[in-house]
Design a protein that fits this description.
It contains 3 helices and 8 strands. By secondary structure, the chain is mostly beta strands. The chain has a single domain, classed as Porin. Strands 1-4-5-6-7-8 form a 6-stranded antiparallel sheet. The chain has a two-stranded antiparallel sheet with strand order 2-3. A hairpin with a 3-residue loop joins strand 6 and strand 7.
């Protein structure tokens, strides 16, 4: 019995410690306002506005450290109407984003699921509404920098940085 205890203690001391970090965050955004229209069928009207600056949303985002700098992650995000409580994005519970992925410092990052397209990921930091707090925005979101268009069943890859250069995504 004494030998078993000594062998177990020696084994524990010889093994390197492994401390995996993990976490799940619950987040959200509620945006609402009041709209006054001076001619709604010949009458003025005051009403509640759903998301005048950004559409309301909630989500779950999680990570799991796998060791050696490798990480597994997921995002589940859904939109809703603050005035009626209905789900946005065609009634999908996680219609904004729903993806899983893995990240490695040597191999890059890959994610699979419902995500924003490449133009949104690339152009969003340079869009006028991002730079100037919604002033000077363009109409129609033709380049998807407002992240209104998502793509199902996608695979997105972001390379590691090579001499300061990195693929977008």
């Amino acid at each position: 019995m004494k030998r078993c205890v000594i062998a177990a203690a020696a084994t524990l001391l010889a093994c390197p410690a492994s401390h995996a970090e993990s976490g799940v965050n619950l987040y959200g955004l509620i945006s609402t306002g009041i709209v006054y229209a001076n001619n709604q069928n010949g009458h003025s009207q005051v009403q509640l506005a759903n998301g005048p600056m950004q559409t309301p949303r909630w989500g779950l985002r999680g990570t799991e450290e796998l060791g050696g700098g490798n990480t597994a992650f997921f995002t589940l995000e859904g939109g809703f109407a603050i005035d009626t409580g209905t789900l946005s994005q065609g009634g999908r519970l996680f219609g904004r984003q729903a993806f899983v992925g893995m990240s490695s410092p040597d191999l890059g990052t890959i994610s699979l699921g419902r995500q924003y397209d490449l133009s949104a990921a690339t152009l969003w930091p340079y869009e006028s509404a991002t730079q100037f707090a919604a002033f000077g925005t363009h109409i129609g979101d033709s380049d998807n920098v407002f992240n209104t268009f998502r793509v199902n069943n996608t695979i997105a890859y972001k390379s590691p940085s090579y001499g300061g250069l990195q693929s977008p995504a």
